[in-house]
Amino acid sequence: MEEKEQMIQEFSESVAKIKAELHKDIIGQEEVLDDVVIAIIAGGNVLLEGVPGTGKTRLVRSLGQTLDLPFSRIQFTPDLMPNDVTGTNIIRKDDDGNLTTHFQKGPIFAQIILADEINRATPKTQSALLEVMQEHKTTVAGKTYVMQEPYFVLATQNPIEQDGTYPLPEAQMDRFMFKVAMDFPTVEELGDIVNLTQHSQAENATKVVDGPQIMKMRALAQDVPCIKEVIDYAMTLVHNTHPEFEETSEVTKKYIRYGCSPRAGQALITGAKIRALIHGNYNVSFDDIDALAFPVLRHRIKINYNAINEGLSIDKVIELLIKENRKNR
User: Fold this and answer.
1) 77-128 pLDDT per residue, tens
2) What is the CATH classification number for the domain harbouring 37?
3) Range of 254's domain?
4) Percent of the chain beyond pLDDT 70?
5) Model-level pTM?
6) Staple 39 to which of 44, 50, 162, 234, CB 3.0 to 4.6 Å?
7) Per DSSP, which regions of the chain are E strands?
8) Are strands 302-303 and 256-258 parallel, antiparallel or unpaired?
9) Do residue 210 and residue 323 come from a single domain?
10) What are the C-alpha distances in Å from 240 to residues 28, 89, 146, 170, 328?
11) Phi/psi at 136 (nearest 5 deg)?
């Protein structure tokens, strides 16, 4: 028992160190950092939405330095081809003058990937990344290449500018564990950001955790128990996003057009186990489920005209779902 408590304490301390280093480069955005750290430990990926200049690229670069993992950035544009992402075979001459093929790896072969403005690329190019993101491997010219773990993709979208973009299909959006909204900073945070960048544009974070340690943390989180009542509570929340069922909630029937997939349930439980450890607990609570419902559900449900007409955001509808779920617990 003492050994388990020590492991939980070390887990919590490691996450605290990661966040402390990230805060050297990122001002505020506490929930964003929590969700990103949970996702990378869980082996999931994050869709990050925010206006330009809020520090999305800086966050991923800083994360790479903190975890001592190779980082690459892919700037998605309409003319980007799948081979520009995955890599391609090139022909070379060897020392004897013979022609040989050599695989030139693409940017996806790092371990932390920033897919900047992913909705600007064509669906064919998007699929090249999303396949690797889901399978952690890619096949080029009949040969399969497996990515090194941990492997993490953070894709960004601009929520305002939609001209010339290719929105991700629902099935592709579902591959992201979380959708995280990076809010515009407060006046005080803006001042801190300006002061920070006046000294240097470079990231200040240093290594505190490495890849093998992240994998150990992932293994520990998988063993965290989750009692049946909490699992039922989470699955009821997921099930209640579907308006087509007679027994579903009144909120859903009134405001939701399409519900989420079973992946939402998997993401809720996986993420909740890690959140429990971060807070020093070795069991998943109802609060862990409620806290992660927003990043898990916000890209997996579609609200209807009633919600839009009443000025309700997706997050507000999720909040109503949580309240109704608690009431019926």
Assistant:
1) 888 888 888 888 787 777 777 777 777 788 888 888 888 888 888 888 888 8
2) 3.40.50.300
3) 224-327
4) 91
5) 0.85
6) 44
7) 46-49, 71-75, 87-93, 99-105, 112-116, 137-140, 143-146, 152-157, 178-181, 256-258, 302-303
8) antiparallel
9) no
10) 33, 48, 37, 19, 12
11) 60, 30
